[in-house]
Design goal:
mainly alpha, 18 helices
C-alpha cells in the first residue's frame, strides 16, 4: 500500500493554532464523550460464517485495508502514516489481538468508534479515521464489520505514536471540533427516492466516504458542506518521487464532473478502473482495485445512480488564458501529445485516451493530478489490467521545463470543449 493522506489548504501554523485553540477554549466542555447518541446494548448477534462474509464485503466497500495496512505490514495491523498540516497520524491495529488490536472491544464500543468517533476509553478519535462518514453506517452493518475484523488473524503490533504539533496533540480539543463540524447518526433513507438511489447514497456518503477526498476542507480540516463533492486536494506518493499534492475531481453532475459521463461510464470506471474515456491512475487506483471492483454490480450501479443525481455544482474557473500562452501550449501539444491524443483531443482507441470533454482530471479546478500525470506519467492500476493502448504514456519531467508544462496543460484545459482555467509555472513547480 502507498501512503494516502489528506492535506488542507496552506495556512500559517500560528493561525491554525490560534483558531483551533480559540474554538477549544470556547467549546471544550460543550460536548461530553457520552452524550452524542445513545448507544444500544451489544447486538449479541450469533457470529456465523454468513455474518463474517457480509462483514468482509462491507469492510471492502469501506476500503479499510488500504488505510489500516502499512507497506510490507500485516493486513489490518495499522501503522500507515497520514501526513497532515497538523502533523503525522498513524492508522491503528484493527485485528483481533487482545492487547494491541480490537480483540477486547465490544460491539457497542466498535459502534461508538464508527458512530461517535470515540475509543473505548472515551477519548476522541481524530477524523483522519473518517467517522464523519462512517457515522451513517447502520448498527447491523457495523456489527458485521466488527465480526469480520475479529475473525482475522490476531497480529500483535502496538500502535505507532502520532507526531502532532501543539495543541493538536491534545485530544480533548476534538470535543470542540465535533460541536462545530460533526453530526452523528445512521443514514436515514429518503422516502421520495428509489431503493437504488438510497443504496447509492448510503455507500457514497457512508462506507465509501467519497467526500473525504472529493470535498474541499476548511482551516480546521472539516469538509466544506457547501462545496460537497466539488473536488478536493490531498497528499499521496508519486512512485520514486515522494509525497505530492493530488487533486480529486468534481463528482457532481456538473459538465466538468460526472455530467461528462453516462451512468454506464461511471459504473464501468468504478467496477473495472476504466471506461470508454479513461483509465484509472494515481491514488484512485487503490480505491478501485482494493474496494469498488470487488463490490456487487448492483451496488456499483447504485453509487453511479446517486452520483449522477447530485446537483450540478462547480467551483468558479480561474482566469482565461491569453493568446500567447495558448499558442505556445498548442506547439508543445502538437510536438509531444497530438500523435496519441490527436489534434482534436478526441483520443484514439489504440494510441491514447480522450482529453476533450471526457476527462474529469483535465476539467478539474485544481490541476495537480493532471500535472502529476504529465511530469511523472500516469501510474497504472495494480494488478495490471490488459494492455489498452500500444504504449504507456511516458513521463516528461526531464524533457519539458515548467513553462512548457504550464503552457501545454493550459492549452489542453482550454481547448475544444474544455474550459478549466489556467495552469501557472508556480503550479508546476509545486508538483515537482
Amino acid at each position: 500500500m502507498r501512503l494516502f493522506a489528506r492535506v488542507l489548504p496552506s495556512f500559517p501554523a500560528s493561525a491554525l493554532r490560534i483558531a483551533f485553540a480559540g474554538a477549544g477554549a470556547a467549546l471544550l466542555f460543550g460536548w461530553a464523550t457520552s452524550n452524542a447518541v445513545q448507544l444500544p446494548k451489544d447486538l449479541s448477534a450469533v457470529v456465523s460464517p454468513a455474518l463474517i462474509e457480509r462483514g468482509e464485503y462491507l469492510a471492502t466497500a469501506g476500503n479499510c485495508g488500504s488505510c489500516h495496512t502499512a507497506p510490507n505490514g500485516e493486513y489490518m495491523a495499522g501503522g500507515l502514516p497520514f501526513t497532515t498540516p497538523f502533523g503525522i497520524i498513524y492508522s491503528t491495529n484493527i485485528t483481533g489481538d487482545m492487547q494491541t488490536g480490537i480483540g477486547a472491544w465490544t460491539e457497542s464500543e466498535f459502534l461508538a468508534s464508527m458512530r461517535e468517533g470515540v475509543r473505548p476509553d472515551g477519548e476522541h478519535l481524530y477524523p483522519v479515521f473518517p467517522y464523519t462518514a462512517f457515522t451513517k453506517v447502520t448498527d447491523e452493518d457495523s456489527a458485521a464489520i466488527f465480526a469480520y475484523l475479529k475473525s482475522l488473524p490476531a497480529v500483535s503490533r502496538r500502535n505507532s505514536a502520532n507526531n502532532l504539533d501543539f495543541p493538536f496533540d491534545y485530544r480533548p480539543l476534538m470535543a470542540a471540533w465535533k460541536m462545530l463540524f460533526f453530526t452523528p447518526g445512521a443514514y436515514e433513507p429518503d422516502p421520495s427516492q428509489s431503493d437504488d438511489w438510497n443504496r447509492g447514497a448510503y455507500l457514497v456518503e457512508g462506507l465509501g466516504h467519497c467526500g473525504a477526498c472529493h470535498t474541499p476542507r476548511n482551516l480546521l480540516g472539516a469538509e466544506r458542506e457547501s462545496l460537497a463533492f466539488q473536488g478536493g486536494e490531498y497528499l499521496d506518493h508519486v512512485p520514486e518521487h515522494g509525497l505530492r499534492p493530488w487533486s480529486a475531481p468534481n463528482i457532481t453532475a456538473s459538465t466538468r464532473g460526472v455530467g461528462l459521463w453516462e451512468h454506464k461510464d461511471l459504473a464501468s470506471y468504478l467496477g473495472t478502473a476504466r471506461n470508454s474515456f479513461i483509465e484509472s491512475f494515481g491514488p484512485m487506483n487503490e480505491v478501485i482495485m482494493n474496494s469498488t471492483r470487488h463490490m456487487d454490480e448492483s451496488d456499483v450501479a447504485a453509487m453511479a445512480t446517486y452520483l449522477k443525481s447530485l446537483p450540478s455544482d462547480e467551483q468558479v474557473a480561474s482566469a482565461e488564458p491569453d493568446a500567447q500562452v495558448m499558442g505556445f501550449g498548442r506547439t508543445v501539444y502538437n510536438l509531444h501529445c497530438g500523435t496519441c491524443h490527436l489534434p482534436t483531443g478526441e483520443g484514439d482507441p489504440e494510441m491514447g485516451p480522450r482529453l476533450n470533454a471526457g476527462s474529469l482530471v483535465v476539467q478539474a479546478e485544481n490541476p495537480a493530478s493532471m500535472i502529476n500525470a504529465i511530469l511523472y506519467a500516469p501510474q497504472p492500476p495494480e494488478p495490471a489490467l490488459p494492455m489498452r493502448w500500444r504504449e504507456p504514456m511516458r513521463d516528461y519531467q526531464y524533457l519539458l521545463d515548467d513553462d512548457e508544462i504550464a503552457a501545454v496543460a493550459t492549452y489542453i484545459r482550454n481547448s475544444w470543449s474544455n474550459r478549466a482555467g489556467v495552469v501557472t509555472v508556480d503550479d508546476v513547480e509545486r508538483q515537482r
